[in-house]
Amino acid sequence: MDQLLITGGQPLNGSIHIAGAKNATLPELCAALLTAQPVTLENVPALQDVRTMLKLIASMGVHVQDDVASSNALTLHAGGLDKTEAHYDLVKTMRASILVLGPLLARFGKARVSLPGGCAIGSRPVDQHIKGLEAMGAVIEVAHGYIEASLPVGQTRLTGAHITTDMVTVTGTENLMMAAALADGVTVLDNAAQEPEITDLAEMLIKMGARIEGHGTSRIRIEGVASLNGCSHAVVADRIETGTFLCAVAVAGGDVHLHNARAGHLDAVIDKLREAGVSVESTETGLHVKSAGASSLKAQSFRTTEYPGFPTDMQAQFMALNVVAPGSSTVVETIFENRYMHVQEMQRLGARITVEGKTAVIDGGATLSGAHVMATDLRASASLVIAALVADGETTVERVYHLDRGYDRMEVKLQSLGAHIQRVSAKPN
Ligand code: EPZ
After folding, report:
1. Residues 21, 238 contacting (CB under 8 angstroms)
2. Which tens digits make up the pLDDT trace of 354-373?
3. What angle do CA 40, 43, 47 make, to 5 degrees?
4. How far apart are CA 3 and CA 23, in angstroms?
5. Which ranges of 60-154 would DSSP assign to H, the alpha helix?
6. Given this model, what pLDDT does residue 427 score?
7. 5, 20, 91, 318 — which has fewest CB within 10 A?
């Protein structure tokens, strides 16, 4: 398993490109299942989770073509799709595999998808996905670890319905929106997620001929159509990669331009960074971030909530800032029940954090010292890299495969900005 070796103390200067959003790419790859025509996605990030999803849809018979013209473009042909099953072996490694359920049911009237199971940050059930599809007429049985979905005898399509999910669910909204696009009649999704990735998916579906309005608000209305066409769509920039690099520059100090970053998708985080003393300005082509380093900052309390609030996917990274910025702060994680796995590892670096239930209290201004730490989940691993950038001496981050799921060669981008970071392949012990 690869490790990252990081020697702290270097400021970050220069310019990097922000890749396409992982959490938009994953549903948009599944949207290709809704049509027999070719779908081209551009600005596709080179991530492990993207490779996993491509493997999953290819296992169903989707033809995947890497466009020679541009290394970040893919063309998907689901005309020859001959399997409507998502096998446990692939689904167990990535929860987002559940996103094939809605499209398969909508286009083929049946699907057999392994239950995703929990992950490091929480149980993460999919009951709302199932509830919504049943409201649209699907017959769903959960047995032997699989979701078996079909349509009632004699019915060839899902039927539009008015669905209010019990809580805001990002992939739940995406699954139901994709299913509704080919349903018979109108579907209204209330309590819908409003993340920019939902809006980006809706814009892609509209290019395919779907009739959708209200995306980006808590009520989305979808009028089903008989079939959908192919399209070409550029994936929206990754707001979480953007936020991660903003936090890295904030704590390390420096002057960096994030090309392709979209300010409007990260207001809650940018507001907190400005309150902390970081300069973040929009430019013609992205965001310009400047910081005098950790000791110049002021720790900021925050609580994670659904979009447009402070995103849970930025909680660990901003906590790394609060650990080294002078001042005490509290962080409340309201979305997932176990998203403080990074705390123990940060304490090994010298962080002063206590956790009580959903609340973490941070006594900031710590001087961190390099140590061996272990990544436990995607965003936790990013927060350890950020902390290591300002720790005295060398830090070794183990289990870097967590980082590779959602960041496109983070160490290469950080090296290009002046960080002392390198990837080593650990000898199997
Ligand atoms: C998406 O996960 C993202 N993943 C997550 O990003 C992100 O943290 C999360 O939304 C919240 O913003 C993708 O988009 C691929 P939810 P998702 O359904 O859809 C509960 C990352 O780091 N819930 O919005 O799985 C659930 O347990 C990843 O990039 C149910 O109870 O999250 C959670 O407490 C991590 N039943 C809350 O709702 C359901 O049927 C929000 O979950 C669905 C969800």
Report:
1. yes
2. 999 999 999 999 999 999 99
3. 105
4. 25
5. 88-91, 101-108, 127-135
6. 66
7. 5
Using 50, 70 and 90 to split pLDDT, how confident is the model at 116? confident
Q: Please answer whether residues 139 and 150 qualify as being in contact, where contact means their C-beta atoms are separated by less than 8 angstroms.
A: yes
Strand positions, DSSP E, 254-308: 254-259, 279-283, 286-291, 302-303
Distance 175 CA to ligand 1 centre (A): 12
With 0-12 / 13-18 / 19 or more C-beta atoms within 10 angstroms meaning exposed / middle / buried, residue 90 is middle
> 335 CA to middle of ligand 1, Å?
8
How does residue 123 score in pLDDT terms, banded at 50, 70 and 90?
A: confident
Distance CA 134, CA 309 (A): 30
Joined tokens for residue 378: 């995607």
**What was the pLDDT predicted at 38?**
97
Query: Are residues 220 and 212 in contact, defined by beta-carbon separation less than 8 angstroms?
Result: yes
**From the CB of 205, is ligand 1 less than 6 Å away?**
no
| Beta-carbon-side half-sphere exposure of residue 45 (alpha carbons within 13 Å) | 31
Pair 233, 41: CB distance under 8 Å: yes
CA distance 87 to 70: 31
- Residue holding tokens 């995607």? 378
Contact between 114 and 92 (Cβ < 8 Å): yes
Is residue 70's pLDDT more than 90?
no
**Euclidean distance between CA atoms 424 and 414, whole angstroms:** 15
- Give the mean model confidence (pLDDT) for residues 110-136: 89
Per the listing, tokens 């309390």 go with: 301
Give the confidence band of 118 by pLDDT, cuts at 50, 70, 90: low
Residue nearest to atom 14 of ligand 1 (CA): 23
